[in-house]
Fold:
Amino acid sequence: MMQNKIISLDEHIIRSQRNLPYASGELSSLLRDIGLASKIVSREVNKAGLVDIAGRADVENQSGDDVQKLDMLANDLLISCLRNSGECCGIASEEEEDFKTIDTHKFSKYVVLFDPLDGSSNIDVNVSIGTIFAIYRRKTFDGECTKYDFLQKGVKQVAAGYVLYGSSTMLVYTTGRGVNGFTLDPSIGEFCLSHPNIEIPKSGKVYSVNQGNYNKYPRGARAYIDHCMNSGYSLRYIGSMVADVHRTLIKGGIFFYPATKSKPEGKLRLLYECNPLAMLIEGAGGKASNGRDRILEIEPHELHQRTPVFMGSPEMVEEAETYIREAELVAT
Ligand code: AHG
Ligand code: MN
Ligand code: MN
Structure:
């Protein structure tokens, strides 16, 4: 019996474009280029244990993180794919101190921000890692892109997605009209639609937080963690935001990284981790906040700005926000 029709990522992007009368194909082309870059990164990730690209690169990035060789490789691969895309006039990366203009296409319509490899601490132990990307329409109209083309609220993203290098490689993306997941079939080198129209469960029984930092969290976050433990929820924490958020998206639950005493702004970065994942979570019917305000409404002031983050099933995020609000009332 004929297998159900395979819908490739490219085909899905083209079909989605047909629903956007004003679309002129540039965003579709850019998404396809990111899909290509993801396949190349996936190939390199899957042989990290065999060739000398695991381990530390003996450099630190501007966030003070030890950079892994695979961080740099993924970063370079994504930059070169976006340079050749023709649809992107500038990029910003976790691994680059400042944004980069793409001189050969400085009049193109879009800028791309990305975390080339998320969950780097898991590379050497063969645990799932990912890539996260956000696409914005540039705000300036001529000449080279400026910092202000990148410092836009998450609500201005025209597309966002992640690639999860796990037991299989999956790409999940949204252009604001539904969230769709594609699984890479290595035998044909195509991302094939495997999770159409993902909707996050309204609630769940899994909470995902680094419990080891419990004593460093603010009172409200600690109270919510106590509630999760007393409610018999399961704790699942992989240490790769993409993997923890993907599980939350599919099974329901809440992922959170509160502020700590050493990181009062939180650890996770707004522009290339929290905003794109928040667009996906909200697109699937979930919620994403900093414990009080919607992530997608946070005004960015610098490229590597951090934020506390609570995202996942709407009822669980609302519950966490209630604990945080009540703790603040007690404190006043
Ligand atoms: P990156 O590897 O891009 O720096 O991201 C790592 C992040 C995120 O993926 C994960 O949720 C978090 O760091 C884990 O932090 P802790 O080890 O402090 O829990
Ligand atoms: Mn990351
Ligand atoms: Mn990273």
Remarks:
- The chain has a mean pLDDT of 92.
